[in-house]
């Protein structure tokens, strides 16, 4: 009878705990059918809400008047400084307890609101830095053409600023997707559970950590393609349209035989 080495026993225990493919295969259908959709719903809603809040806050932060900048600065500093879990609990538990129930008893709405508020605080600083990086001459040129300040910002300056911060925005959107896992604290109803909530339930049922690996794979399937796509888009925007490499001789409208000198013959 041969005894297994401690290293072999440890590796087997590690594989059984984190990579039990039977448990993973059993967890995946529920993760994909329910958790993936709800994670995308929470993250997409939070991203849209965060971008809207961030644009408004960034415009306030760029004001020359301190009393206009102050509310936006307080909002950004407070919600960037608070731990995400505290903000989720304040919004999802504190607001209903105080009688403020814009979404009734639906925890999904409070989840989107909480993550959106946090996302807006971070994205506002991203937008502000991007807009300030645009050459002031762009704004002056737009104003010289008769555009108002707000119209010049909306049509000329802001689009250029956002294009410059696409990679940073992608990082924030990836963060929103990951932070959606914290909304399990709000006690989502059946049919509303996101990836982490479902994985946590499966861990408690099977006493195995493999469902967390399955949930991690689902998160990676969302975040990695998004990162590469935005990096590709950013690279294309920086390089501009690709020049046409078709040779002039390939143009069907051009003559294919050499031109002859006027009044002469071909030699």
TrEMBL record:
Its main location: membrane. It comes from Streptomyces sporangiiformans. The chain crosses the membrane at residues 39-62, 74-95, 211-233. It is found in: Cell membrane. Gene3D superfamilies: MetI-like. It is a multi-pass membrane protein. GO terms for cellular component: ATP-binding cassette (ABC) transporter complex. This is Amino acid ABC transporter permease.
């Amino acid at each position: 009878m041969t005894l297994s080495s401690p290293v072999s026993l440890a590796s087997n225990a590690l594989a059984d705990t984190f990579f039990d493919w039977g448990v993973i295969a059993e967890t995946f259908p529920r993760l994909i059918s329910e958790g993936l959709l709800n994670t995308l719903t929470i993250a997409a809603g939070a991203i849209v809400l965060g971008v809207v809040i961030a644009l408004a806050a960034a415009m306030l932060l760029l004001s020359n008047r301190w009393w206009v900048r102050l509310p936006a600065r307080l909002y950004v500093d407070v919600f960037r400084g608070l731990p995400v879990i505290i903000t989720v609990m304040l919004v999802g538990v504190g607001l209903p307890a105080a009688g403020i129930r814009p979404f009734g008893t639906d925890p999904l709405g409070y989840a989107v609101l909480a993550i959106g508020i946090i996302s807006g605080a971070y994205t506002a600083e991203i937008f502000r830095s991007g807009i300030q990086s645009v050459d002031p001459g762009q704004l002056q040129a737009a104003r010289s053409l008769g555009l108002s300040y707000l119209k010049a910002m909306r049509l000329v300056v802001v689009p250029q600023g956002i294009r410059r911060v696409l990679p940073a925005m992608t990082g924030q959107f990836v963060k929103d997707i990951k932070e959606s896992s914290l909304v399990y604290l709000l006690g989502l109803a059946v049919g509303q559970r996101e990836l982490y909530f479902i994985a946590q339930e499966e861990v408690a049922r099977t006493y195995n950590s493999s469902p967390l690996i399955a949930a991690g794979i689902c998160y990676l399937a969302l975040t990695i393609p998004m990162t590469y796509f935005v990096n590709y888009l950013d690279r294309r925007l920086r390089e501009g349209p690709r020049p046409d490499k078709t040779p002039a001789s390939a143009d069907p409208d051009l003559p294919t035989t050499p031109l002859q000198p006027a009044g002469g013959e071909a030699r």
